[in-house]
C-alpha cells in the first residue's frame, strides 16, 4: 500500500489526508502543535464562494495609504525595516488593478464552484460535523459605502458564479445585534458557514478512524524528495514515505523554498473573539467597510477581522483586537464588547498574486498545498480532493492548474 506523510493538521492538510485515503493510500499526519492550531481555529468559518475573491483590488491604492496611518484600520503593517515584508507588499500592491483582479478571479472561479459540494462529500463520507446555509446579512452605514461590495458581487457574477443578493428593509429582523447605524443592508444567499475548530477536529477524528496515524507535537525540520520522500523531525527522527504533502500554511516557506517553491507566502494575521448577544445570533453578519466578519459560534457571536502583515510566530497584538472593537462599536447593539472570550490570532498564508500554491515541487514525491490567503477553510476540501488525485494518478485537475507552486 502506498504511504503519504501530510505535514500540517489544519483544514487543508486534513482534507488532503482524507482524500488520499479515498484512493487507498496509508496516511501519517504530523503537526508541530495540534489539530487546527494555525489559521483553522478562530476564523469566521465562512463557506462563501461568492466572497472567495482576490484580496488585492484597485481600492487598495486609496485604502492602503490611509490604513497605514489609521490605527483602527483593518489593514495593518508594522513600521520597521523589513525588506522581505516590504518587497512582498510591493508585489501584492502591483496586483491591485482591474486587469489583475479579473485574471485572479478567473483562476479562482473553477475551484470556487466545487467548494460546497466537496464539503458535502466529507460529511456524507463520515465526518461528523455540519455546514449550514445563510443567509448572510451585509450591512452599511450609508448607501455610498455599499458600492465596492456591489462591484465585487458583479465581478463574481461576471466570471460565472451565482451570487443571490436581495435588498433588506429591516436587517435587524435577521440580525438583531445590528444597530440603527446600519441603514443599508442586503441578504446574500447560496453560501454556508460552519464552526471551524469543531469541523477540523471531526475531520481529524474521521481520518484517524479510517486508519491514519496522527502525531501532534511533531515539528518537521526538513523535507526531502527522491526515490523515497522523507521528513526529518526536529528531534532527528526521519520518516520515509512514497509522497509528502507540505500543508503548513504561513510556515510553508520554511520547508518548501529549498524545494523550488519561490513564490512568497506572507502571514496575513487575523484576529477574533466571541461575545454574548442580547438575542441569539442565527446568521452570519458582514460589515464590508469595517472589514468585519461575524458568525454564530457555540451559542455566542464570533467577531473576526484585521489583515495584519507580521511574522507568523510574533506575539498577539492586543491593539488589533481594540481596532476591531472600535470599528464595530457603533454598528452593534445589545453586545458588551468589553466582555470577550476566545481571543485569538491566526496566520493566514497570503501570496502576492492572490492564488494558492497546490501541486508538485521540484523534489520528486513532494507536494505543497497552501497559500489560500483568507480562503483556506472554504477551499480546503476541494484542494485536498484535487491534490490527492494528482498525487495518485499524476493528473492535474483543471480547477488547480493555475495554482502551480513553481510559477
Largest sheet: 9 strands, mixed
The CATH architecture name reads 3-Layer(bba) Sandwich
Percent of residues in helices comes to 25-40%
* Series of H and E elements: EHEEHEHHEEHEEEHEEEEEHEEEEHEEEH
Overall structural domain count: 1
Mean pLDDT across the residues is 96
Counted by DSSP, the helix tally is: 9
CATH topology name: FAD/NAD(P)-binding domain
Low-confidence runs: none
Rg estimate, integer Å: 20 Å
What spatial form do the alpha-carbon principal axes imply?
A: globular
Number of E strands: 21
Q: What is the CATH C level class, in words? A: Alpha Beta
In short:
Helices cover 30% and strands 26% of the residues. It has helices at 11-22, 60-69, 83-94, 98-124, 147-158, 196-209, 252-256, 318-328, 376-393, and strands at residues 3-7, 26-31, 46-47, 75-76, 132-133, 136-140, 164-168, 184-189, 192-193, 213-216, 220-224, 229-233, 238-241, 243-246, 266-275, 285-287, 292-297, 300-309, 341-350, 357-360, 366-370.
Features:
globular; 21 strands; 30% helix; 6-stranded mixed beta sheet; 9 helices; alpha/beta; 407 residues
Question: Can you put this structure into words, describing what you see?
Answer:
- The protein has 407 residues and is of the alpha/beta class.
- It is built from 9 helices and 21 strands.
- The strands form 4 sheets. Strands 4, 6, 7, 8, 15, 16, 17, 18 and 19 form a 9-stranded mixed β-sheet that branches. Strands 10-2-1-14-21-20 form a 6-stranded mixed β-sheet.
Amino acid at each position: 500500500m502506498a504511504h503519504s506523510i501530510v505535514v500540517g493538521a489544519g483544514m487543508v492538510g486534513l482534507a488532503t489526508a482524507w482524500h488520499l485515503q479515498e484512493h487507498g493510500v496509508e496516511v501519517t499526519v504530523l503537526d508541530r502543535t495540534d489539530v487546527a492550531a494555525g489559521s483553522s481555529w478562530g476564523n469566521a468559518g465562512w463557506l462563501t464562494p461568492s466572497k472567495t475573491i482576490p484580496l488585492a483590488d484597485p481600492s487598495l491604492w486609496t485604502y492602503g495609504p490611509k490604513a497605514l496611518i489609521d490605527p483602527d484600520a483593518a489593514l495593518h503593517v508594522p513600521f520597521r525595516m523589513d525588506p522581505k515584508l516590504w518587497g512582498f507588499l510591493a508585489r501584492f500592491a502591483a496586483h491591485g488593478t482591474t486587469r489583475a483582479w479579473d485574471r485572479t478571479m478567473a483562476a479562482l472561479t473553477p475551484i470556487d464552484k466545487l467548494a460546497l459540494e466537496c464539503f458535502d462529500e466529507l460529511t456524507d463520507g463520515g465526518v461528523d460535523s455540519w455546514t449550514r446555509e445563510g443567509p448572510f446579512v451585509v450591512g452599511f452605514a450609508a448607501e455610498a459605502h455599499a458600492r465596492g461590495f456591489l462591484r465585487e458581487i458583479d465581478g463574481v457574477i461576471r466570471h460565472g458564479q451565482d451570487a443571490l443578493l436581495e435588498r433588506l428593509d429591516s436587517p435587524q429582523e435577521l440580525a438583531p445585534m445590528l444597530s440603527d447605524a446600519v441603514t443599508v443592508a442586503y441578504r446574500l444567499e447560496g453560501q454556508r458557514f460552519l464552526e471551524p475548530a469543531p469541523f477540523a477536529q471531526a475531520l481529524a477524528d474521521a481520518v484517524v478512524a479510517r486508519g491514519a496515524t496522527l502525531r501532534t507535537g511533531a515539528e518537521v525540520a526538513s523535507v526531502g524528495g527522491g526515490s523515497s520522500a522523507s521528513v526529518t523531525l526536529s528531534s532527528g527522527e526521519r520518516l520515509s514515505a512514497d509522497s509528502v504533502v507540505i500543508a503548513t500554511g504561513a510556515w510553508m516557506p520554511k520547508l518548501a523554498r529549498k524545494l523550488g517553491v519561490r513564490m512568497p507566502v506572507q502571514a496575513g494575521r487575523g484576529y477574533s473573539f466571541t461575545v454574548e448577544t442580547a438575542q441569539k445570533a442565527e446568521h452570519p453578519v458582514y460589515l464590508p467597510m469595517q472589514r468585519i466578519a461575524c458568525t454564530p459560534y457555540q451559542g455566542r457571536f464570533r467577531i473576526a477581522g484585521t489583515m495584519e502583515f507580521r511574522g507568523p510566530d510574533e506575539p498577539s497584538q492586543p491593539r488589533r483586537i481594540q481596532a476591531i472593537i472600535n470599528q464595530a462599536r457603533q454598528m452593534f447593539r445589545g453586545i458588551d464588547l468589553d466582555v470577550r472570550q476566545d481571543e485569538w490570532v491566526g496566520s493566514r498564508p497570503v501570496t502576492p498574486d492572490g492564488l494558492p500554491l497546490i501541486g508538485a515541487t521540484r523534489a520528486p514525491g513532494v507536494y505543497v498545498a497552501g497559500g489560500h490567503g483568507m480562503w483556506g477553510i472554504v477551499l480546503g476540501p476541494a484542494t485536498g480532493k484535487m491534490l490527492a488525485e494528482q498525487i495518485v494518478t499524476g493528473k492535474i485537475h483543471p480547477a488547480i492548474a493555475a495554482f502551480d507552486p513553481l510559477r
